[in-house]
Amino acid sequence: MSGFDDMDVDTIWMDGEFVDWDDAQIHVLTHGLHYGSGVFEGVRCYDTEQGPAIFRWDEHLDRFYDSAKPYDMDIEFSREELTDATHELIERQNLQSCYIRPIAFYGYNTLGVSPQDCPTRVAIACWPWGTYLGEDALENGVDVMVSSWRKHASSQIPTNAKTTGLYVNSMLAGEEARRNGYVEAIVLNKEGNVAEGPGENLFLVRDDAIYTPGLAESILDGITRQTVIELAEEAGYEVHEESAISRGELYTADELFFTGSAAEVTPIKTVDDVTIGAGERGPITEELQSRFFEVVERRTDDHDEWFTYI
Ligand SMILES: Cc1ncc(COP(=O)(O)O)c(C=O)c1O
């Protein structure tokens, strides 16, 4: 039994071949399992009138290859091969909208910390995935807490690489929040400034201007973050995308929201039980969120360059 059982998916692409879902197995002594030496992506494909449309695939591929660089990991498949594999997975399984998970990791050979003699394995899976933070999160917002766990600093580990091992920090922060009755966490960086959520970037609205922690704040350079910055600027907002945001500024913000491929644009209604703004989705969050969905669901011709149609 698994959470994928009723999802009507049956195929995974692994190292150049399509294999049955249940046969996509690895050895228990895989390097990546022991040391977190993998890199991955999370991409959404939206159901549109023109058919399934993958959102910002090129940027996700860029980040995928970039993430592998600090780990000296050679992803031996080309962009075309990964793109073709993904298209075929979506077609074969008749998926209209889905989440796409490419992953590359050091595989099975030796189990010293050095991965030098381990092969790089690459896989892609796709499956249907609804709202990340719960059904009413997009409309009504979520209650979050500031985690007692700090984010690893970019001087300790490359935080701009989307590395599997980093996500134990996300897991600790997110589970601490859920154990305490919150939906999600906000994680501060080593300096005590606001970094991001466990799987989301964070935006703050104050006096009609928009702020988001800068890339030097130990955050992932989120593709939804880039998208929202661009859409907000197009809408005429002043966006401060290299901000340092203190914890206290969270509580006094007019609006706060998360962005991410999984979380999309999710309003935050309370932080540590302090009501943010009016305690509901704020007007600028709502405007940017509806613009985001208008674009990703292709109810406009704008930004067609962000989409790869199946
Ligand atoms: C730690 C972290 N920050 C931010 C994000 C948002 O990034 P993106 O919009 O590229 O999904 C994610 C999700 O991938 C994440 O895991």
From TrEMBL:
Keywords: Amino-acid biosynthesis, Aminotransferase, Branched-chain amino acid biosynthesis, Pyridoxal phosphate, Transferase. GO terms for biological process: isoleucine biosynthetic process; L-leucine biosynthetic process; L-valine biosynthetic process. Its EC number is 2.6.1.42. InterPro entries: Aminotrans_IV, Aminotransferase-like, B_amino_transI, BCAT-like_C, BCAT-like_N, BCAT_family, Class-IV_PLP-Dep_Aminotrnsfr. The keyword Protein biosynthesis does not apply. Pfam families: Aminotran_4. One of its GO terms (molecular function) is L-isoleucine-2-oxoglutarate transaminase activity. Pathway: Amino-acid biosynthesis; L-isoleucine biosynthesis; L-isoleucine from 2-oxobutanoate: step 4/4; Amino-acid biosynthesis; L-leucine biosynthesis; L-leucine from 3-methyl-2-oxobutanoate: step 4/4; Amino-acid biosynthesis; L-valine biosynthesis; L-valine from pyruvate: step 4/4. It catalyses: L-leucine + 2-oxoglutarate = 4-methyl-2-oxopentanoate + L-glutamate; L-valine + 2-oxoglutarate = 3-methyl-2-oxobutanoate + L-glutamate; L-isoleucine + 2-oxoglutarate = (S)-3-methyl-2-oxopentanoate + L-glutamate. Belongs to the class-IV pyridoxal-phosphate-dependent aminotransferase family. Acts on leucine, isoleucine and valine. This is Branched-chain-amino-acid aminotransferase. It comes from Halococcus saccharolyticus DSM 5350.
